[in-house]
Write a structure and sequence with these properties.
The two termini are 35 Å apart. The protein has helices spanning 22-31, 53-57, 62-82, 101-112, 133-143, 146-164, 182-186, 189-205, 214-217, 227-236, 256-265, and strands at 3-8, 34-42, 88-94, 117-119, 123-124, 127-128, 168-169, 208-212, 239-243. The protein has 281 residues and is α/β, with parallel strands linked by helices. The protein has 11 helices and 9 strands. The longest helix is centred in the N-terminal third of the chain and has 21 residues, at 62-82. It has a single domain (3-265), classed as Metal-dependent hydrolases (TIM Barrel, Alpha-Beta Barrel).
Length: 281
């Protein structure tokens, strides 16, 4: 069974909430014997108010983040070639979902030509809900409460899937990040219907779901995807692959064997499918 990460490789060199250089990150994956890894750096933000909260606090601007991303992709390509005999590296990008993201992400794809994209949702109502419990509460209040937050999250996710057709859907149920009662909220009829709808769409488009292990690093009891959703994904025949969502040397490979064991126990194919590459003229 191969070690892989379909959603990993954030580095302090190109991400303000990560640590270590990208080359150090790649060498760590090699040392752990990974067959392939998707380096999935965050897309630069569109406007000042739509930057991640930590980026705003550090004084970044959309222009400075664009310039940093413009340094990221050539460096990732350099490492891709340098270590090609030791590991397969995908130079990828993690997208975002907020006002105006569709054209912004398509512009980034045309400009930087990533190997694939991870489609993620970190904003609801243009609020960075996963930054802190306070931001989470603010996002919920903005849309009318926690149940509405869940519903809006999965509606935004579906719109993103239909618009961008990402090879990988990132941390499917991230909306539960600061919710201790998430099993109850995921089971609400309005939420469960949206989950089923999104899973069926992922299957129709033959996308991969990221089994995101960073939740365990942050103290959660289970990864994203939570077990009932994971079981349903298996029933639908959706491809799932592990992602450590690493943000530095400290969490590369962490909980990977535990995550693989969960997937194997449920009968998922551990001959991991590689993300479908973007086609360019």
């Amino acid at each position: 069974m191969e070690f892989v990460s379909v959603h990993g490789g954030h580095s302090g060199q190109f991400c303000s909430h990560a640590e270590n250089s990208l080359e150090e990150i790649i060498l760590a994956y090699i040392s752990h014997g990974y067959a392939w890894v998707g380096v999935t750096e965050h897309a630069p933000g569109l406007t000042q108010n739509l930057l991640y909260t930590d980026q705003q606090n550090l004084g970044f601007t959309p222009e400075s983040l664009w310039a940093r991303f413009a340094r990221y992709m050539p460096e990732c390509r350099r490492l891709q070639a340098k270590y090609a005999n030791e590991i397969t590296i995908f130079a990828a990008m993690e997208t975002e979902t907020y006002s105006g993201y569709e054209e912004h992400i398509k512009t980034l794809i045309a400009e930087f030509r990533p190997d694939y994209i991870v489609g993620s949702v970190h904003f609801v109502g243009d609020i960075n809900f996963d930054y802190s419990p306070e931001k989470y509460a603010e996002a919920a209040a903005t849309v009318g409460g926690v149940e509405h937050l869940y519903c809006q999250y999965f509606d935004d996710q579906l719109a993103m899937i239909d618009s961008l057709r990402p090879a990988v859907v990132g941390h499917f149920d991230l909306v539960r990040i600061f919710d201790r009662d998430y099993p109850k909220h995921l089971a609400l009829p309005a939420v469960a219907e949206r989950i089923e709808r999104n899973l069926r769409r992922i299957k129709e488009l033959d996308l991969i779901m990221d089994f995101n292990l960073r939740a365990l690093y942050k103290g959660a009891s289970e990864p994203y995807i939570s077990r009932p959703i994971l079981v349903r994904a298996k029933e639908l025949g959706i491809a799932v692959a592990p992602g450590d969502d690493s943000h530095g040397l400290a969490n590369i490979h962490q909980n990977m064997e535990r995550g693989i064991a969960i997937l194997a126990d449920l009968g998922f194919d551990t001959n991991w499918r590689r993300p479908r590459p973007l086609a360019y003229p």
